Amino acid sequence: MKGEIINVGTEILIGDILNTNAQYISKELSSAGVSVFFQTTVGDNPDRLMSVLKESVERSDLIILTGGLGPTQDDLTKETVARLLGLDMDMHTESYDKMMSFFHKISSKMTQNNLKQAYMPVGAHIIPNENGTAPGVLIEHEGKVIIMLPGPPRELVPMFRDFVMVYLQGKSQDKFFSNYYKVSGIGESALEDMLIDIIDNQTNPTIATYAKPDEVLLRVTANAKSEDEAKLLLDKTDKIIVDRLKDNLFAREDISLNGLVAKLLIDTSTTISLAESCTGGLITSRLTETAGISKCLHSSIICYSNDSKIQYLGVRKSTLEKYGAVSRECAEEMLKGLIKNNNTDMAVATTGIAGPTGGTEDKPVGLVYVGIAYKGNIHVEEHNISGTRHRVQLKSANIALNLIRKQLIGL
Amino acid sequence: MKGEIINVGTEILIGDILNTNAQYISKELSSAGVSVFFQTTVGDNPDRLMSVLKESVERSDLIILTGGLGPTQDDLTKETVARLLGLDMDMHTESYDKMMSFFHKISSKMTQNNLKQAYMPVGAHIIPNENGTAPGVLIEHEGKVIIMLPGPPRELVPMFRDFVMVYLQGKSQDKFFSNYYKVSGIGESALEDMLIDIIDNQTNPTIATYAKPDEVLLRVTANAKSEDEAKLLLDKTDKIIVDRLKDNLFAREDISLNGLVAKLLIDTSTTISLAESCTGGLITSRLTETAGISKCLHSSIICYSNDSKIQYLGVRKSTLEKYGAVSRECAEEMLKGLIKNNNTDMAVATTGIAGPTGGTEDKPVGLVYVGIAYKGNIHVEEHNISGTRHRVQLKSANIALNLIRKQLIGL
């Protein structure tokens, strides 16, 4: 089923409000097997609304309109839809009574313009609004379905969930099921390169990638009559994808890397302490986003100065003089210091040059050492990360989080 | 000038991401005197994109497209625009070289699909992208202006602000001048309430608010023929706004609170050390976003466990037993420990209950102590912050940053 969304409201066009309705409705429609091909926002202007409406009725089976159902003069959605479909407007008694009792309840006199909200296109189904005065409207017309809902999310969302979704699920036979793959340490384009043959030949299931800062979500969606049938379709691609993603695949759900790592630490009751230099606390602050981490996190030393590396981690002055703070040797001593001081199961350390200044020829900006100590082993990796200071810090943090993850799941 | 926005991306149509670009661009265009009549979101599908493009070129003077400039197969915005306008695509050497050196720098092989990003419609102006690999494109064609920008906001926003807005102002005779007010510790709606009379009566200057997590940017824009004329218009509202914002106003430019505080520390060569418990490193990681902070930041102890408070900060066991870790007394001893150990000009400490669990009747979730030691004085504030764990951590961090700011400017 082809669907589209038309949001009516000048306040959206001048950027006064963020259009969260479009996202909410799109997500719901996708889950109900409706392919949303267009989202259009148009102002409270009958001619422009009419031009958008005409086109939408030609190209889509389902049109959801939001906004423009209110009492004021510029609320013209119902009237414009009725005009396009050649339907008369008529007083809807139930809605009228409901509105009267509403105004009675708040013991305020109903102004004339509110009456407008009780006039409905003839033959329309009315969608009750439990959180406002403007009812929703559903019209089935020559094989097309047109649904109008009020703009305020607190009115729209319950109406959509409790009425529109029930209506749609009754109509469609197809169901949609998805596999999720969360990937880190590899960019969106490299990921698609890796899967290009599958992506090029996708029909059912379909494949989509969504990049978030230094994380990519891969979604594989099958469309079938039953969950079993969908599972068969998904299993075919699943093995290939998992083989190719290797270590980069860190979750089979849409979870952040730091959220997953915090969960692993908590579930395995692993205590951890950290020493962050170039990452400046980013790893620890991201771990502490997860409730319950206090059970595992002993402490983290953000040892930005050389003094603090000596003072809190027992890094030797001679090491700093001989190899510098950004060195494998320093990272190792940071780890040893953490283990000695904190007696935690795991220790993690970062030291590097985040930039943009401070680089030299043999130690350029982006040179980062990330180390981990666990079960008696010390492992330090050298990385060269390009880009802004922000990117160097973010990638360094994710490299560290990924090291923790691999150690905890024994990779 | 009539404008419209076309957001290209299937991920928006299936509701996986919220379309914040449409709001941002609409707000900016309105402030530049462009009337936005349509926002359209279309998927990564050349035919549907073409149909939307055709129509937009007929009805609008300025068309801003976002998304679909990346390296992957389904990134087709440039190609579709070129096809509509009958322009050939050609390799843009500068963009190619920039990309090559980027991949050379990260010493990773550039995959073939990345090349795509260097091919540009012949005769187009290229908009450099400092935060990603896909440049933007501006085409002037038969009196119409078509601008293509990458989808990720952290790439799009700087390009729009530094290039597109400058370009648009160059085109119109009217010039736009703005006052900026950066506010923390007060929400967007509370801020609008505070200024409702000015907002309701706005014609010239116009007022717009931009909410970021726990920070709001207030922009007052006057439209005039000359800077002097604009200045007169802006001065009228300036006094009123500054009076009403009081302490909440932390900057007269669009700078983050942590960026401002880092700058103040660097400019005044003030050394600082921190002890973060409930904020888990958030304050320090935000300070270290600013290059050059290494000159000021000695260290930060994320003392999540009681042991670490004793071990690294010399908090007395008896204090923890008698008053608990979340107490004024503990915060004071954390500060004293920092001063004693680190000999920095300033020390900052946080301890609190971020939640969602761990609260008690006399110490509820959201109880936070934020302390600062500077020039021999120790000052500890008690706060009760409502909301999620994330909000408690974020607000606690901003309270601390604001304390540092006030101390440094002698408030």
TrEMBL record, chains A, B:
Residues 4-170 form the MoaB/Mog domain. Belongs to the CinA family. This is Putative competence-damage inducible protein. It comes from Alkalibacter saccharofermentans DSM 14828.
